[in-house]
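Hi there, hope your week has been kind to you so far. Would you mind checking whether the tokens look sensible for this chain? I owe you a coffee for this, so here goes:
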Amino acid sequence: MSVAGAWDGVGDAGRVGARWLAGGACAGLLGAILGCSVSVSTPPQPVSATPEPLSSKGTTPADGGTSGPRVGEELALNVPLLDGSLWGIQEASPSELGRWCILIGSASDPEFSSSLDVVGAAADGVGLVIVLIDEGRDDAERIRIPGAEVGWDPEGVVPLQLGVSAFPAVVIVDSKGTVEWSASPASAADLEERWRALQEPSSAE
């Protein structure tokens, strides 16, 4: 017989144990629910500050046009030469030369090599500046065109100044540094046609 309010060892112990088990089950279920609802966020990956290397082929804009300086634009250009000095167009323009042709590209590009063959035939009154964007300077040192200024620009400073992103790139300026013609990318065929026109006596006015 049990007395109301008195401890019934077996019965009360069973009921207390049941409550503990029920409470533990509820706590486990709650933890499972919360664990499923908490999303684990992945920390953002750091963005590399290293710029992508310039392509030796390049691309043309979506409209089919070419990038680079516009005809009539006056340039302020500095080219790092092999000897460590700078060739500046503003300093070089007041000279006996009526025009400057600036050719930029990579020695590994066959179109650039073909363009070099074109400008190798001197045009009267036209100065030549050749800029290689290769990492190694050996190719730049192998260029042997009489009277040509040879630049080595692995950092891509000259393309940035001119706003060109496709190679080879060609810019022809007059004695004041004003753009007469530019193409990026330029084909050797187009350059040859322009070069022949420059070789005509009437072009050196």
Notes: The chain is about 30% helix and 15% strand. Residues 9-37 form the longest helix (29 residues). Strands lie at 78-80, 86-88, 99-105, 126-132, 149-152, 169-174, 179-183.
